């Protein structure tokens, strides 16, 4: 008996190592060996570990078998086993099945509630997550708020409001909170909140975290605070490709193309391998100020020197750079020869430049393509209609207005907003 118990301890320690270090196949193989070779009953810790591995490598059949075994062993009341099962069903099978199991848990801890909340938000079921949050019968903790803040990313004001609610509960943010809140703050240009996040991170020894630092570089850059962006970047101990790309994009966004390209050169000198996102920043830097030759050069290098595949976004930036430089026919040839799907961005860049340079023939081609890709976008009809009117082709302009009316396309009035800080 003693020998078996020592073996169980040894196996459990090894299983824990496998499961926590991503060696999930080895973890499952060891679990099956433990079941076959040990006379002792396996405990809740073992089941929670093996369920973690089942979830990670999508083994729902084994997971359901372990569920049955855990039920026979009366382990469903264990909070760790219950949470691991809910997580496994939600990620490997279906969220409704996970919810059914969640509802059957006799004593739901805050960890169980948080697991279900995360499943809802990761499955884009935010209304369900919000309803579940309101139904919590235990006090929420920071991890209860984090998935919903992240899920509200598309509505920065609501995300920030939910964060304020978390503060009113007397809870402090953690790293996950900050990583979720930062892009929401950028989306509504909440510079004061970005500074608060930065300050909190520095006071709580989170300022050195590479993902948060890169996020701050991007956040400050998008808000036009390039000095702050550089300050964060310069203090980073390890500058990975995300950090360099964020700084390049920050300068590109504000029309500082030469600075962005110089940063790219520094990145190369530091032996940091650029990725696809890096080159989107580089190409945008070229396109914003019409550096057509430079855009062609870096587009070629991306594929030739770094073996990266050009996406629709890369091609759109190249088309934009050529179009802004007045090289409209070159831009059109790029579009014609693109091996990937031509997006509205590429055709829109060409159409806008055609208006600036008075190139009606290419504008008609671009306009017709855009009518097919995004028939509800009134701006394309209006832009081409104005070009017709400017050269006296009023019948064609009237035809476009009639086509808009038939398709029920309406021009949306321009609008702007201001964030007031109390």
TrEMBL record:
Keyword Repeat: yes
Keyword Hydrolase carried by entry: no
PPR repeat ranges per the UniProt record: 240-274, 311-341
One GO process term, biological-process aspect: RNA modification
UniProt keywords, alphabetically: Repeat
NCBIfam families tied to this protein: PPR (TIGR00756)
Entry protein name: Pentatricopeptide repeat-containing protein At1g03510
Encoding gene (name): LOC111484567
């Amino acid at each position: 008996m003693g020998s078996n118990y020592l073996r169980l301890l040894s196996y459990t320690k090894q299983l824990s190592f496998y499961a926590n270090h991503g060696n999930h196949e080895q973890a499952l193989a060891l679990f099956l060996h433990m079941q076959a070779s040990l006379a002792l009953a396996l405990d809740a810790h073992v089941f929670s570990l093996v369920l973690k591995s089942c979830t990670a490598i999508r083994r729902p059949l084994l997971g359901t078998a372990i569920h049955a075994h855990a039920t026979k062993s009366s382990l469903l009341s264990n909070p760790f086993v219950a949470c691991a099962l809910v997580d496994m069903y939600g990620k490997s099978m279906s969220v409704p099945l996970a919810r059914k199991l969640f509802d059957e848990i006799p004593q739901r801890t805050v960890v169980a509630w948080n697991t279900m909340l995360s499943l809802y938000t990761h499955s884009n079921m935010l209304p369900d997550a919000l309803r579940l949050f309101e139904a919590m019968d235990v006090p929420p903790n920071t991890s209860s708020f984090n998935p919903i803040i992240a899920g509200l990313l598309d509505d920065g004001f609501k995300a920030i409001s939910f964060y304020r609610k978390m503060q009113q509960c007397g809870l402090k943010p953690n790293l996950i909170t900050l990583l979720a809140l930062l892009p929401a703050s950028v989306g509504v240009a909440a510079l004061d909140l970005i500074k608060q996040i930065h300050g909190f991170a520095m006071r709580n020894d989170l300022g050195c975290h590479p993902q948060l630092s890169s996020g701050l570089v991007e956040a400050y850059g998008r808000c036009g605070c390039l000095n702050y962006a550089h300050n964060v970047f310069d203090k980073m101990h390890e500058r990975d490709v995300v950090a360099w790309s964020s700084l390049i994009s920050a300068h590109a966004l504000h029309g500082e193309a030469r600075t962005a390209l110089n940063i790219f050169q520094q990145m190369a000198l530091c032996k940091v391998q650029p990725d696809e996102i890096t080159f989107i920043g580089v190409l945008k830097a070229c396109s914003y100020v019409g550096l057509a030759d430079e855009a062609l050069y870096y587009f070629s290098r991306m594929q030739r020197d770094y073996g990266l595949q050009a996406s629709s976004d890369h091609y759109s930036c190249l088309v934009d750079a050529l179009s802004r430089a007045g090289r409209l026919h070159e831009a059109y040839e790029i579009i014609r020869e693109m091996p990937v799907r031509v997006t509205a961005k590429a055709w829109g860049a060409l159409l806008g430049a055609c208006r600036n340079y008075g190139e009606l023939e290419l504008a008609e081609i671009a306009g017709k393509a855009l009518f097919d890709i995004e028939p509800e976008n009134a701006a394309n009809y209006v832009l081409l209609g104005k070009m017709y009117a400017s050269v006296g082709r009023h019948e064609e302009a009237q035809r476009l207005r009639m086509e808009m009316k038939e398709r029920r396309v309406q021009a949306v009035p321009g609008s702007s907003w201001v964030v007031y800080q109390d």
